[in-house]
Amino acid sequence: MRPLHSILIAEDDTDIANLVRLHLERAGYLVTRAADGRQAIKRFDEGEYDLVILDLMLPHVDGMEVCRHIRNAEERYVPVLMLTAKSEEANKVAGLEMGADDYVTKPFSVEELLARVKAIGRRVQMLSKLKDEKAEQTLAFGDLVVDLTKRIALRDGEDLKLTQKEFEILRVLALAPGRPFSRRALCERAGVESFDGTDRTIDTHIKRLRSKLEEDRNRPVYVLTVWGFGYKLTDKFC
What we know:
Distance between the termini: 31 Å
CATH architecture of the largest domain: 3-Layer(aba) Sandwich
Largest sheet: 5 strands, parallel
Structural class: alpha/beta
CATH topology of the largest domain: Rossmann fold
CATH superfamily of the largest domain: Response regulator
Strand content: 15-25%
Number of helices: 8
Helix content: 40-55%
Number of strands: 12
Low-confidence stretches: none
Strand order of the largest sheet: 2-1-3-4-5
Mean pLDDT: 86
Oligomer: single chain
């Protein structure tokens, strides 16, 4: 995964789009704008971007559908920073569950947005460095295989298509099966940022991870809850 350079902004408000574009270009990024959801999908498919800044409320095709399209692309993982004028918790959770990597609520300061973009860039570089430095290593837990080199997880030989953050959470847990991690420790080790000042954001990512990993996410056998504390990976298969 290469460092952030090329950014696609999907934003129908021209003033906001121009302001964000101006500051991103001053910071050295190459920026392309899409004014609606259909155009965002078209430009994403035709271009090669390192980050998508995506407004939730877009004309023609909304941001959730655009995010779903991006996540269904199999070529490579592209981080998504979602923007919305809505501040309700349900919209934050919906954005995360759809696969957004970060979330900024309007109105926002350009400085905050740039800080979020830079934070995503640092995580991308860190993960790229870890990938380059790691020796080949595969961890197996019954039908679950976690390939730390290829950064994929397989169950019964099928790729679970985890997002960047979902894999990082699983990697942290898989390197210490049976060890309970507090929510805060798991957030820090997996690079999961809190949106509300608490460490409960990890619960949303765990829910998404379980939906892909477990046959029944309400009765997990791999990622287990440590009540009142956090989570752990089962050591049943060790």
